[in-house]
Amino acid sequence: MRRKQKVKISIIVSICLIAAFFIGYFSSAITMVSWKVFLSKPIASWFEQQNAVFFAKDDVDIVNIQAFNRVKGILENNYYKDVDFDEAFSTSIKGLAAGLDDPYTVYFTPAEMKDYLEAVSGNYVGIGVSVHMDEDFLLNVADVFAGSPAKEVGILKNDKIVKVDNEDVTDITESNLIVKRIKGPENTKVRITVYRPSVNDYLDFELERRVINISWISSEILENDIGYIYIRQFDDDIARDFETHLDELMAQGIKGLVIDLRDNPGGSYYQVVRIADRIVPQGIIVYTEDRQQNRNEQYSDERELEIPLAVLVNGYSASASEILAACIQDYNKGILVGTQTYGKGLVQEIDLDFSNGGGLKFTKARYFTPLGESIHGEGVAPDIEIELNEEFNTTSIEDIPHDKDNQLKIAIDEIEKAMEK
């Protein structure tokens, strides 16, 4: 008798547990997707394997989860044609990164990741411009290289690239993905549409892609034995090249130096650290700090530049350019002349460990100057603020005659004053 009672109790408990499971399961499903969506699918389908995305309770409001599932349900049942949810979900992953309101954090689909890696590491066959995203996330021409296809057809500095081969690119916030479209096999054609603010109009150009041979640095001696070094960008060899140019100028007896960082969008973090090391005294050059306040510091040795120095900057001097300018300013090793710099002081990292072949470029840390100031969103203020003469607003720095370059003239005047002391 007791045995029968135990069996009966076990059966009742099992039934209750199973019932509780199904009640909980279906209640949870209904809460997430609504009665209407729940009833629109066969009951059996709810017992098939389901894939889920998990968030902590306090991270995402349940009403947003419900809204997502409702959109999915409506599209699944009422959209006018079959929905490729795998493709749609891939786009929603991009939306998760885009929701941070950080243009430097981007999810790349597998195809985009392949294009991105090719754009930053492939041979440079293109039209001969350097570009960056402006404050409106339009691809701005920062410089047009001498002898390039872009120079030949009349593309100007400050033009905004809005179409490539008649395809709108204004909704792409990652510059390298647009650059990838501009690049291509040598001797092939590409059509570029730009918006030119100076004439408030759109212009179309057809160009032939060519191998672009770029000299990222140049130097000369100006009057009164003042050296001049123009750094166009901090590529992977620029520290060695800077040392070579500086040594050659010093051997010729320069008594002062102008470093021109105008329109320089940045480049290698470690290369600019090496250049700063040659200029400033022993101490910290720059440090980065992540969300846990973990610091990574870069230091200079005791060797430093012992002649008067001026640095030219403008609103297109960004990232690595700002690291060098701020470091020189913080150590009072030179005077900054020009206009406020761009204000990009973030460190990005790329995670390639995605099983689907995609990737995530995300902001990991911030740069700080030797005195602990964050560059991002602020930029570096020059010691002497002066706008370039308006007639040269669309002219590449290398094409501005020295005798008409009012910013350069101020820099030279400051060096000459220091030389007299």
Describe the protein's topology:
Blueprint: H1 2-33, H2 35-39, H3 62-78, H4 85-98, E1 106-108, H5 110-121, E2 125-126, E3 129-133, E4 139-144, H6 149-153, E5 160-164, E6 167-168, H7 175-182, E7 189-196, E8 201-208, E9 210-211, E10 217-222, E11 226-231, H8 238-251, E12 256-260, H9 269-279, E13 283-289, E14 295-300, E15 309-313, H10 320-330, E16 335-338, E17 346-351, E18 359-368, E19 384-385, H11 406-420
Parallel strand pairs: 11-12, 12-15, 15-16, 16-19
Antiparallel strand pairs: 1-18, 2-9, 3-4, 4-5, 5-6, 5-7, 7-8, 10-11, 13-14, 13-18, 17-18
Helix pairs in contact: 5-7, 8-9, 9-10
Question: Can you give a write-up of this model?
Answer:
- By secondary structure, the chain is α+β, with helices and mostly antiparallel strands.
- 34% of the residues lie in helices and 23% in strands.
- It is built from eleven helices and 19 strands.
- It has helices at residues 2-33, 35-39, 62-78, 85-98, 110-121, 149-153, 175-182, 238-251, 269-279, 320-330, 406-420; strands spanning 106-108, 125-126, 129-133, 139-144, 160-164, 167-168, 189-196, 201-208, 210-211, 217-222, 226-231, 256-260, 283-289, 295-300, 309-313, 335-338, 346-351, 359-368, 384-385.
- The chain starts with a helix and ends with a helix.
Short structural description:
The chain has 421 residues and is an alpha+beta fold. 34% of the residues lie in helices and 23% in strands.
Residues in helices, as a percent range: 25-40%
Element order, helices and strands?
A: HHHHEHEEEHEEHEEEEEHEHEEEHEEEEH
| Radius of gyration from CA coordinates | 29 Å
Spatial separation of the terminal alpha carbons: 112 Å
Strand count, sense and barrel status of the largest sheet are:
6 strands, antiparallel
Characterize the overall form. elongated
Structural class, by secondary structure, is: alpha+beta
> How many β-strands, per DSSP?
19
Low-confidence stretches: none
Number of discrete helical segments: 11
Beta-strand percentage range: 15-25%
What average pLDDT do the residues reach? 88
